[in-house]
Amino acid sequence: MKRTGILLLTLLMCLSSLSSALADRTLRITFTGDVTLGSEENKKNREESFNSFVKREGYGYFFRKVKDLFEADDLTVVNLEGVLSDSARNENKKKTYRFRGPTEYVQILKEASIEACAISNNHTKDFGKQGYNSTRKTLKDAGIDYFGAEEYFIFEKDGIQIAFFALVSTIVQGHQTWGKEITAKLREEGVDAVIVCIHVGQEYDPHHNITQKRYAEMALSNFGADLVIMHHPHVLQGVEIMNNRTVCYSLGNFCFGGNAKVRALETMVVQAELDFTDDGTYKGQRLRFYPAYTCSSAAAVGDPNDYQPTLVTGDAGLAVMQLVQNDTDFELGLYDEEAGCLTLPYLPAEERETDTVTGGAGTDEEPLTLEVAKE
Fold first, then answer.
1. Burial 154-174 (b: 16+ CB within 10 A, else e)
2. What residues have CB less than 8 Å from 311, skipping those under 6 apart?
C-alpha cells in the first residue's frame, strides 16, 4: 500500500512538472503614438499651451482617460517626441519647431503608468546634447526605461525577455549590420523576442510609402524583429503582416503638447499580446486596436487642443478604424463595440527570414532613400 502511494505521488509530480513545462506565458504590451510633454519656447506661457494646462490641471490630467488601459498591461511604451530639460541652452533655432518641457513633467508619465519611452526621433535633440542627455537622465532617475540609437532596453517578466530598439530614419541605413549582430548576441544571451520602433514616413500622409515598407523588411530581416511599430507621420496609417509578424506603419499623434490646436484628431492605442512557451520560445501574437482621439473636447481638426487623449466608440470608433483600413491591403475584421477595440487574427510564429537587407529588401530595387524628419 505504501509502495502504491509513493508511485502515485511520483506520477502526480511528473504530470505536474510536464504541465508546468507546457504552460504558456503571455505578455501584454501597449503602444501609443507621439507624446510631447511641453510647448514651443515662445508659446509656453500662453493660456492654451501645454505648460499652462500642467499648471491648471496637474500631472494626472493628461492620461486620465486611458490610464486604466495602461495599468492593465505588463508594459506601456510611448514615443517621447521632445526634450525634458530645465534649460533652454543649445536650442536649435534652425528648426521650425522645437519642443521642451521641464524635467518635472516626467511625473506625467509616472502617474499614467507609462514605463518605457522610445527616444529616437527628430525632436529628442531640439536642444542639442544637453537636452538629449537631460531627457535620458530624467527618465532614468524616475525609473522609466528608454531606448534609442544604440541604447536598447530589455524588458523581463516571468522569465521572458524582450529587447526593444528605436531608430530614426536618418540612422537606419548605418545600423543594419549592427542590428543583425547585436540581436544575434542578445538572443544567445537569452532574449526571447525583439520589438523595433522606427521613426520614419511622410508627415500627414494617410498612406505609408515604399521607404517605410523597406525599413519594416529590414527590421524583420536584420534585427529579427517580432513586431514593428512606426511613428512620425502624425496621422494613422495601415498595417501589414510580414513573416507572420505585424507592422504598424503609424499610430499618429497621442498626447501632443506641441499643437495648441488639433492638427490630427484620430489616433489609436495598440495592445500586443505575445505568447511564449514556458522555456521562452516565441509562439505567436495577437494585436488589439483601441480607437481614440488625441483630444477629449475637440470634434475636428482646428479645434483647441486639451491634450487629453480619450478612447472613442460607436460611429467615431468605426471611423478611426476605417482610416487604418484605408491603408491596409487585407480586411482588418470587425470592430467590437462591447470590447471597444478591433482584434486582428492570431498570428502563430513562423521561421524568420535571415538574409541581410541592404537595399530593396532582397530585390533589384535601388538602395533605401532616407527621409529626413522635418517637423
1. ebeeeebbbbbbbbbbeebbe
2. 65, 66, 69, 269, 290, 291, 292, 340
Coil, helix or strand at residue 136: helix
| Cα–Cα distance, 54 to 50 (Å, whole number) | 6
Measured N-to-C along each axis, helices 210-222 and 176-188 cross at an angle, to the nearest 10 degrees, of 40
Domain assignments of the chain as residue spans, ordered by start: 23-348
- Give bridge partners of residue 145 from the DSSP assignment: 116
User: Environment class of residue 360 by beta-carbon count within 10 Å: exposed (0-12), middle (13-18) or buried (19+)?
Assistant: middle
Measured distance CA(151)–CA(90) in Å, rounded: 23
For residue 149, report the phi and psi dihedrals to the nearest 5 degrees. 50, -120
What is residue 155's DSSP assignment? Answer: E
Q: For the domain bounded by 23-348, which CATH number is listed?
A: 3.60.21
pLDDT in tens, 352-365: 554 444 433 333 33
Query: Do residues 118 and 147 touch, judged by C-beta distance below 8 A?
Result: yes
The pLDDT score that the predictor gives to residue 374 is 38
Query: Comparing 6-10, 246-250, 335-339, 344-348, which segment has the lowest mean pLDDT?
Result: 6-10
Pairwise CA distance, residues 369 & 366, whole Å = 8
Chain centroid to Cα 305, Å, comes to 22
What's the pTM? 0.88
C-alpha cell at 336: 467590437
Separation between Cα atoms, residue 268 and residue 276, nearest integer Å: 26
